[in-house]
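writing this on my phone so excuse typos. first protein, seq and then structure
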Amino acid sequence: MKGDRVEIVVDAGDTTRTYEVVASRAGRRVETAVRRGVVEVSEVTRSGSVVRTARFMATRVLALVEQPVPREDASEHSERATSKRPLREDPQT
């Protein structure tokens, strides 16, 4: 989904470097994979076509942080709607 992003912190010898891969358009998502000692972070379209890929040696990756955009589910929406109703007072008290 647009706005999903992954931050990768890599050991660059005496310092660290931070890279970001962001889903830049609607309908795109960010996928991560670790294969044969290589970490791949790719931006992918709805149809599964890879738009761009960042590759890092797994031994150099210090942190991989996935930050999805908050999504509003239908169930959460209905819970919020019911919780916002005012409580009915009992007339007999």
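second protein below, same order as before
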Amino acid sequence: MADAVPVLLGTAGFVLGECFVLGDGSDVVIGRSRSCDISLRRAANYLKAASETRDVDQDFNTVSRRHLRLQVHESVVRVQDLSTNGTFCNDDPVQQAREIDLANGAFSLRLGTRETFQVQMLPKDDPRVIVAGAREPQAAGPKTPAP
């Protein structure tokens, strides 16, 4: 898919309905911390929820402050779990960094017990990509080197 880009589509939890474009060369950290490149505390559904609800949401609290790192090269996504509560690709725990080629199809990515994304390629002219392109994850600060 020459005219396609890798994206994260939120499918469950506070990230439901979110779309993030992962441009070639992306190196993003996802988690609860606002310092992450993709902070779940900035998700629209999280911001809409009453603070009393957010603060006691046990499923959301299974997402670590810095939960996982995604590195993208063309259609290959490298997934590295940084958490204590687990990252799951297609419901299989990520115990060591793994590379997945989106040319072979999409995969699900779950953080903790609920927050779930579909990682897939979408055409550059897909409306979700166009809207999300304006919000492409930007580095929040210096990156921590991979171990």
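The chain is about 10% helix and 35% strand. thats all i got for now
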